[in-house]
Amino acid sequence: MNNSELTRIEVIKLIAITSKQGLVLQGVSLNGIDLSKLQLAWSQFQKANLTNANLAEADLTGANLSGANLSGADLTGADLTEANLTGANLTGANLTNTNFEDACLDGIIGYFK
C-alpha cells in the first residue's frame, strides 16, 4: 500500500528539475512508493519514511539516508556507494546484491534479508 506524500511521477519531475544536484526530501513520507531504477544520486532523505518503498536498482550514490526508515524496503541491486545510512532503520529490508561500497553504516538498526 502506498501512503506516500508524493507519487512516482512527481518524483521523476523533481529529478528532471534538480538535475545533478539531487533531491531534497528530508523528513518526507514516501511510504510504499516505487522509486525503482531511478537516478537518486546525492539526494537528501534524512529522516524520510521509506517504509516498504521499492528502491530496487535505484542509483543512490552519495545519498544521505541518515535516520531514514527503510524497514521492509526493497533495495535489491541498488547502488548505495558512498551513501550515508547512519542510524537508518533497515529492519526487514531486502538487500540482495545491494552495493554498499564506502557507505557509512554506523548505528544502522534492524535485520536484513
Mind explaining what this structure looks like?
The protein has one helix spanning 8-18. The longest helix is centred in the N-terminal third of the chain and has 11 residues, at 8-18. It has a single domain (1-113), classed as E3 ubiquitin-protein ligase SopA (Pectate Lyase C-like). It has 113 residues and is mostly loops. Helices cover 10% and strands 0% of the residues. It has one helix and no strands. The two termini are 20 Å apart.
Provide keyphrases for this structure.
single chain, 113 residues, little secondary structure, Pectate Lyase C-like, globular
Q: Unreliable segments (pLDDT under 50, ≥5 consecutive)?
A: none
Number of strands: 0
CATH architecture: 3 Solenoid
Distance between the termini: 20 Å
List the helices and strands and how they pair.
Layout lengths: L7 H11 L95
A few lines on this structure:
The protein has 113 residues and is largely without helices or strands.
